[in-house]
Design a protein that fits this description.
Strand content: 15-25%
Number of domains: 1
CATH class: Alpha Beta
Radius of gyration: 13 Å
Shape: globular
Strand order of the largest sheet: 1-2-3-4
Number of strands: 4
CATH architecture: 2-Layer Sandwich
Distance between the termini: 23 Å
Oligomer: single chain
Order of helices and strands: EEHEHEHH
Number of helices: 4
CATH topology: Transcription Regulator spoIIAA
CATH superfamily: STAS domain
């Protein structure tokens, strides 16, 4: 299962967090809900959220879709969400779907 954790020392307008773990198709809905809730809650306190995704182990278009959902949610809540340390295999998966520029723009 994918988990999200806040990094120590996050303060002010910027929140730093990490996203890690693996994801099966069965767990996708729960993982998406977790990310969307995290973005919504964080946006009330922070203008921007940076999430390190280097710990994501899943190679799946589902993970790309969840990351894109997080960007949409952040935009809805007037928060800037960026993903950093995107593993190459996830970037390549996004490239296949033609959305790599969206995820790259989030860095």
């Amino acid at each position: 299962m994918i988990s999200i954790s806040r990094k120590e020392g996050s303060q002010g307008d910027m929140l730093e967090a990490s996203l890690a773990g693996s994801l099966s198709e069965r767990e996708a809905r729960e993982a998406k809900s977790l990310l969307l809730s995290f973005v919504q809650e964080s946006s009330s306190e922070h203008k921007s959220v940076k999430i390190d995704v280097s710990g994501v182990e899943s190679v799946s278009s589902i993970v790309v879709a969840i990351l894109l959902s997080g960007l949409r949610a952040a935009n809805k809540h007037s928060c800037v969400l960026s993903y950093v340390n995107l593993p190459e295999y996830l970037f390549n998966m996004a490239r296949v779907g033609g959305v790599e520029s969206i995820l790259a723009g989030a860095e």
